[in-house]
Every structure is written in C-alpha cells, then in structure tokens.
Amino acid sequence: MRIGVLGGGQLARMLALAGHPLGMSFVFVDPAADACAQSLGQHQISDWSGEHLIEALAGCDRVTFDFENVPAHTLTQLTDHFNVAPSAKALSISQDRLDEKALFHDHGMAVAPHAAVSDRPGLLAALADLGCPAILKTRRMGYDGKGQYRLDTPEDCEPAWQTMAEAPGGLILEQRVPFTAECALTAVRSQHGEVRFYPLTWTHHEAGILRFALGGARWLESFQHQAEAQVRPILEALGYVGAMTVELFVTETGLVVNEMAPRVHNSAHWTIDGAVCSQFENHLRAIADLPLGATAATGAALMINFIGQLPSTDALAVPGLHWHAYGKAPRPGRKVGHATWVVDDESSLMAGLDGLGPAMDANAFQALTGWIKSVG
Ligand code: ATP
Ligand code: MG
User: Fold this and answer.
1) Among 81, 240, 267, 277, which residue has the least CB neighbours within 10 Å?
2) Residues 279, 138 share a domain
C-alpha cells in the first residue's frame, strides 16, 4: 500500500519507519529540499496547494498529513481523488483555537476561559474580563509555543498588542490555567469506529515547547477514565480516523482541555519503544483499515526531546535507552531528535535517573529531575 504524506518532517519519517514493516511505501510532499523523511520514500518538493498535488500523489492508496498547518481546503480537494484521513473537518477545527474550544465546550469539556480579540480595545476589554495572568495567542498557525505572548500584569497589554497585532487570522486571549501538571491523551480510531486509548502521558513544557514526556505514569491512572470519557465523544462527533492527541491540564478541580492535534504527536513518541504498538503504526493501521494494535505501555517510558542539537551518544550505554535522530541540521529551538528510556516501572526510573546525565546538558538534567520529583 502506498501512503501519501503531506509534510516530510520527523513525524512523517517516524510514520514511514513504522509503515515499512507493514509493507507500505511512502510519498512525502514537502517544500523543503532537505525534508528529513526523504530518505524513507519518494520526496515531492512542493507546497500543499494547487492541482499539481494530485499529480504528486498519483498512485497513493491513502493520503494523510504530518503537519497541522496544511491548508484544510487542500485536504477537501484531495478527498475527491484520494482516501484521506484524518478528515479535512478535523484538521480545519484544530487550525482555529476558537473553533477548537467551541467543539470541546459543546461536548462538555472544561476549557480555559477565553475571548476572541480583534483590536486593541478588544484586548483591553478581554483582559479586564478574564484577568491576569493570561496568554494572548494567534488563533491559527501556532506550534511549539510560537505565536504566544504571556501577560502577567495589565501593563503587558501594550507590548502584547504591538507584538501580536499583525498576526493573520486573529487572536485569542486565554486565562492562564493554574495547572498542577500537564498531560496528554492519545487515541486511535478505526474506520469502523473502534477506539483505543494509550495510557495518559505526563508532559513537561518549557517556553511552550515539549521537553519531556512520561508514558504510563502511575499517578495519572486516576485520570484515565475521565480523560477517555471526555475525548471519546469528540472522536465520534468528527467521525475521526487515525491517531489523535488531546493536551490536558490537570487542575485541582479536574481536567481542563488545552488543544487537540489531529495527527501523530510528540507527546506520544514514547509509544515507539514503550508501548505494544506505537502511535505511528496505529495511525497507519487505522487509515489503511487494518486491525488496530494494542495500546498498553510495556513499562515506564521517559521521552526526552533533543532541542537545538543532539547530545553525546554516550547515553546509549544506558540499558533500555532508545535513540531517535531525525537527520535534521542543528538549529536553536528545533526538535532534532529524542531518546526514550524504557524501564520496568517508575521506581526503576527514579533509581536510574542519574545515568541519563550524558543524554542532556546540565540545565536540562536539572529540569528533568525537578519535574520527575514534583509529583513523586
Ligand atoms: P504545541 O503545538 O507544541 O502543542 P502550541 O504552540 O500549539 O504548542 P499550546 O499547546 O497552546 O501551544 O501551548 C503551549 C504550552 O503553553 C502548553 O503546553 C502550556 O504549558 C502553556 N499554555 C498554553 N495555554 C495555556 C493556558 N491557557 N494556561 C496555562 N498554560 C498554558
Ligand atoms: Mg500544545
């Protein structure tokens, strides 16, 4: 089976790594000449618009995407020619934070109090209403914390407006949720409506970018049922096919939803090495109409993102550590790889934490140990 992927970044690359053993071949459509998935399939250097896309994807049995900012109308057009999943509708809703929050709210999920902002007086009024601290975000095109401005006091209004006013597609002001932790629920839904959930992932972001994720964290088990009950109706309402991740805040009054990603997601990279069947393989199984794989964690799986550059490979000496280099040139703030360390359980993780020192710089290691010990 031939899979067309709009986007040729690390997510496309990991999809292909999961798909080759299933006998799949891949076409990646990406405008970047050095798209990092290219060594795993055919690379069509192209953007994601226009008639030539149909030609670029010729012969593909399924079409999917690894990038949330592919134009939704492109997917709609492709649907006339190809079997496309996830749907243009799911993608389109996820591309606008306001629509996304409306979907969650309409299905009974708690979201951060928020308001659409279109001008300076609107920002002042929204901040007066929602209060500080708050976050001003672009409604569209944000990722890895880009397109966000944090407001701590009303005086931050003016610099926030100056920085964000030109964003195309409008702005949204969100109350800053006083979370005790962040987590993410990754689900996969088949073409026949079968849904499987991975164990909740405990996540840690810094400056809006995911740094660490722990799959199968024991302390999150008590939230699993609530999270699944909240996310399932969203999958049903969208008639969703494929893998999806929903990011959640854990607060003293329960779960508050942040956003959804209608694709494979960084928070679930641990499933490659730490779950029976990875999110990548399950995404492909779902869109290819194959039986879904088991989503259970095989132990405690800690994922560390490599941001900017790869660390020393000395960490490969740690038993149970799996290395994933994306083949990307180093650049500040860029996700260039990750490692997943899989151990039997969280007590082994705590006991062996010091061994991970070589896998990161001293600051990152300090952040990791501080985070892991924060919930205990
Ligand atoms: P990504 O696509 O990488 O998940 P993003 O750029 O779409 O990120 P968000 O997920 O909205 O942005 O925000 C990134 C991080 O910023 C969140 O994981 C969280 O740590 C923090 N954050 C965002 N919105 C809020 C909020 N309303 N209250 C508290 N923290 C928030
Ligand atoms: Mg996010």
Assistant:
1) 81
2) no
